[in-house]
Write a structure and sequence with these properties.
binds threonylcarbamoyladenylate; alpha/beta; 11 helices; DHBP synthase; four-stranded parallel sheet; Rossmann fold; single chain; binds magnesium ion
């Protein structure tokens, strides 16, 4: 990406505008984290309630002390090991951090992304960029610049195009602000990898953990109802729906597929990393197919698939209660 494009994006941030930018996980919808008026625009554009906190993106772990008031040993080790990368850490916030960014909580979410365009933007800007995933509230996250434009149109001042996001699903979130580190959102960095660095088990998110609204049931949902279906029932269900005159969309890992013009079928990758990479783009494609339902073949249940399971379960929960977004 040329330096003029980055300079323009930095000027937009400095003047309080919104800049969508690529990260290795998903695209972010960014504003100057120190400018309350700019941060308000994020909530307005997303249609997100103001008490749902945002992640502050930093260019390097060296800036941690500017945003966190306490850096526990656990939070230091995880940052050293995984930044820049797809890990968000929750620390006690520094006093200046705006309540609009933290959702009024005494903690702040921080992440140093590794994507070269995000790095170039953060490096040139110098400050923190508050950015949620660049999707309308409750919807599927954006993994390409085109998705971002489709979500927001002209409501975003600038969209930096860095190609398709590598990881494809949102960062792992670990809360290091409490007594024992807790996993708030699974992601491509697995709990096992985190625990290996900590040398102890992560606590599950409990009632005492900071709120992480993106971790509530209804999230990441297409408009079309999503159903998670066991592999051996998939073909049968798809066929019975088409016999009743419905069009059906399917995201499946099995090779067997029906020859039926009313079935839109996407063959998903076999391994979890590639599956995650394609997941949101596939859901968006299937959502546009005008079908009665998106049937998703239940992927394997082992640890490597934990983050994918989390997103699929939420997408399916969204279909059951579409008004709860
Ligand atoms: O991969 C990602 O994390 C992407 C890219 C753009 O960095 N961002 C992202 O942001 O997924 P968002 O806003 O869609 O999800 C951030 C999650 C939300 O579930 C939010 O509740 C949680 O982080 N969060 C933010 N600040 C928090 C805090 N202080 N305590 C607990 N959870 C927090
Ligand atoms: Mg999100």
């Amino acid at each position: 990406m040329d330096s003029k494009t980055i300079d323009d994006a930095v000027a937009t941030l400095r003047s309080g505008g919104l800049v969508a930018f690529p990260t290795e996980t998903v695209y972010g919808l960014g504003a100057d984290a120190s400018n309350a008026e700019a941060v308000k625009k994020i909530y307005a554009a997303k249609g997100r309630p103001r008490n749902h906190p945002l992640i502050v993106h930093l260019g390097s772990a060296g800036q941690l002390g500017e945003w966190a008031s306490e850096i526990p040993e656990t939070g230091k080790r995880l940052a050293e090991r995984f930044w820049p990368g797809p890990l968000t850490l929750i620390y006690k916030r520094a006093p200046h951090v705006n309540a609009l960014v933290t959702g009024g909580q005494d903690t702040v979410a921080l992440r140093v992304p590794s994507h070269p365009v995000a790095q170039a933007l953060l490096g040139a800007f110098g400050g923190g960029i508050a950015a949620p995933s660049a999707n309308r509230y409750g919807r599927v996250s954006a993994t390409t610049a085109e998705h971002v434009r489709g979500e927001f149109g002209n409501a975003v001042d600038c969209v930096l195009d860095g190609g398709a996001s590598d990881v494809g699903i949102e960062s792992t979130i670990v809360d290091v602000s409490g007594e024992r580190p807790a996993l708030l959102r699974p992601g491509s960095i697995t709990s096992r990898e985190i625990e290996a660095v900590l040398g102890s088990a992560l606590a599950p998110a409990g009632p005492g953990s900071p709120r992480a609204p993106g971790t509530r049931p209804k999230h990441y949902a297409p408009q079309t109802p999503v159903m998670l279906i066991e592999a051996d029932l998939l073909i049968e269900l798809a066929s019975s729906m088409t016999r009743q005159g419905h069009k059906v969309a399917v995201l499946a890992r099995s090779a067997l597929r029906p020859v039926d013009p009313n079935v839109t079928w996407i063959a998903a990758p076999q391994d979890a990393a590639h599956y995650a990479h394609d997941l949101y783009a596939s859901l968006r494609t299937l959502d546009r197919a005008g079908c009665a339902a998106i049937l998703v073949e239940q992927p394997p249940l082992d640890a490597a698939w934990a983050a994918v399971h989390d997103r699929l379960t939420r997408a399916a929960a969204g279909a059951a209660t579409p008004d709860a977004t």
